[in-house]
């Protein structure tokens, strides 16, 4: 068994039994579940809106090369510099080069999952650059030395008491401080960092082809400050974030906010099309856009899995997944958790090491049901399992077991001859994966097939 798989099993076993963790995560997800239906009421036909969004993303991904080249041409004309990074190492090297050129000592960063993907904070720290998370949830996680727990809500697993204790330990605040008081403390600290920082880093919720811009959606305004106050703005975005036209935002912004948090639209929605122009008074002197592949073209080349690139990172599938709600985000040990993470991580990293995530699902289909862009997530999880077998990532014991199972299932007489006792013994004794965490299974002495023949004969 791969180390990542054994670690996942160990962590999930502990978390699944942690009732306090389950209480916190279900309480916080419950808040979203209560308001998402209200947000959906803004759509006259929410399923049609989802279908239209899926079609737009289909067009964008099917013509991805042309979309990205057009984006680069337009934003370059406005003074931005576009850098293509094949992997995390190239992206980090490009950022280090920019930091050296700008003599950067402090860098402010808004919430960005793609920067978590390339482990930007650790890299900058090793190179003597202070990287400060400015989103409150990410700042809490950074203080605690933890990665984000959830795609949308990084500190979802923490209660207000947990945060108060953390701030008291790290910042010397009153252990009984209210969330409002803690927010003001963080605000005072972070506002000073914006003034001191030489570089600001943001992600991009969408890359807009026809205007050569990036769109950022947020609720706190930290991305706006990160991309406007420092003299240099660096955008790091996965290449799949493309949408063809600015007018598409009229659909994607409400979908992202409604399915993510239940809002009709998020508080701050920003479009950036380059650095400060000659006739403008605000904004950075320089802007860099790093377009990151890091395994995405592996998914693009896979005709069946390509659909997963439509994801807009709303987090709805995490909130709906019964597995995620029991084992939590950190158990996955990957940047992207929940159903979407289980689909894409084996392709972004290594199928052999990460195929176990595709089995971290009940295949109930709840993730597909709530996806803002109608990705067939549970089918893609099954496809991952199929691909893992095709690629030979399966033990000899499992191969033999399935061959035996196939032979038995193809022969009804064998199944009937085995009898209930034999079937029960096989499952409870030989099938270790079943009996390790479950009670014994008892099969009836006679199969349905036998009972039918006894009652009705062979007709």
Secondary structure layout plus pairing:
Blueprint: H1 3-16, H2 19-40, H3 46-62, H4 64-77, E1 81-85, H5 88-101, E2 106-109, H6 113-117, H7 120-126, E3 130-133, H8 136-144, H9 160-171, H10 179-196, E4 199-202, E5 206-208, E6 213-218, H11 222-228, E7 232-238, E8 242-243, H12 249-261, E9 268-272, E10 286-292, H13 296-301, H14 316-320, H15 324-327, H16 338-348, H17 351-354, H18 366-370, H19 377-390, H20 396-409, H21 412-430, H22 432-435, H23 448-456
Parallel strand pairs: 1-10, 2-3, 2-4, 4-7, 5-8, 7-10
Antiparallel strand pairs: 5-6, 6-9
Structure summary:
The protein is of the alpha/beta class.
Structure description:
- By secondary structure, this protein is an alpha/beta fold.
- The protein has helices at residues 3-16, 19-40, 46-62, 64-77, 88-101, 113-117, 120-126, 136-144, 160-171, 179-196, 222-228, 249-261, 296-301, 316-320, 324-327, 338-348, 351-354, 366-370, 377-390, 396-409, 412-430, 432-435, 448-456; strands at residues 81-85, 106-109, 130-133, 199-202, 206-208, 213-218, 232-238, 242-243, 268-272, 286-292.
- The strands form two sheets. It has a six-stranded parallel beta sheet with strand order 1-10-7-4-2-3, sandwiched between helices. The protein has a four-stranded mixed beta sheet with strand order 8-5-6-9.
- Strand 5 and strand 6 (213-218) form a beta hairpin.
- Helix 2 runs antiparallel to helix 12 and helix 16 (338-348) packs parallel to helix 19.
- The longest helix has 22 residues, at 19-40.
């Amino acid at each position: 068994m791969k180390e990542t798989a054994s670690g996942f099993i160990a962590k999930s076993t502990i978390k699944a039994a942690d009732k306090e963790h389950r209480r916190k995560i279900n309480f916080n997800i419950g808040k979203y579940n209560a308001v998402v239906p209200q947000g959906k009421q803004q759509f006259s036909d929410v399923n049609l809106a989802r279908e239209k969004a899926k079609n737009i993303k289909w067009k964008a991904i099917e013509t991805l090369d042309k979309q990205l080249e057009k984006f680069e041409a337009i934003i370059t004309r406005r003074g931005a510099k576009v850098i293509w990074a094949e992997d995390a190492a190239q992206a980090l090297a490009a950022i280090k080069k920019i930091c050296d050129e700008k003599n950067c000592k402090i860098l402010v960063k808004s919430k960005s999952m793609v920067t978590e993907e390339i482990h930007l904070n650790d890299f900058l720290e090793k190179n003597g650059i202070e990287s400060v998370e400015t989103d409150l949830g990410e700042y809490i996680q950074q203080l605690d030395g933890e990665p984000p727990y959830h795609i949308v809500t990084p500190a979802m697993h923490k209660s207000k008491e947990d945060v108060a204790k953390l701030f008291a330990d790290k910042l010397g605040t009153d252990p009984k401080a209210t969330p409002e008081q803690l927010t003001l403390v963080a605000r005072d600290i972070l506002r000073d960092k914006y003034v001191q920082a030489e570089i600001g880093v943001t992600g991009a919720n969408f890359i807009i082809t026809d205007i050569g811009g990036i769109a950022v959606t947020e609720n706190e305004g930290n991305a706006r400050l990160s991309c406007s106050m420092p003299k240099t703005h660096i955008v790091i975005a996965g290449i799949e974030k493309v949408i063809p036209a600015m007018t598409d935002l009229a659909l994607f912004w409400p979908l992202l906010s409604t399915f993510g948090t239940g809002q009709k639209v998020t508080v701050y929605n920003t479009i950036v099309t380059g650095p400060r122009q000659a006739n403008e008074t605000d904004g950075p002197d320089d802007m860099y856009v790093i377009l990151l592949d890091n395994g995405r073209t592996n998914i693009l080349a896979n005709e069946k899995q390509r659909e997963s690139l439509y994801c807009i990172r709303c987090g709805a599938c995490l909130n709906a997944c019964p597995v995620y709600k029991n084992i939590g985000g950190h158990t996955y040990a990957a940047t992207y958790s929940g159903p979407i993470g289980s689909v894409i991580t084996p392709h972004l990293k290594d199928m052999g090491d990460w195929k176990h995530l595709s089995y971290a699902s009940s295949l109930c289909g709840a993730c597909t049901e709530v996806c803002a862009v109608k990705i067939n997530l549970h089918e893609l999880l099954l496809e991952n399992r199929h691909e893992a077998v095709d690629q030979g990532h399966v033990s000899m014991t499992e191969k033999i077991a399935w061959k035996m199972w196939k032979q038995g299932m193809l022969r009804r007489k064998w199944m009937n001859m085995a009898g209930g006792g034999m079937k029960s013994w096989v499952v409870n004794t030989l099938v270790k994966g079943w009996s390790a965490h479950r009670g014994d299974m008892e099969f009836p002495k006679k199969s349905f097939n036998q009972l039918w023949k006894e009652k009705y004969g062979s007709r």
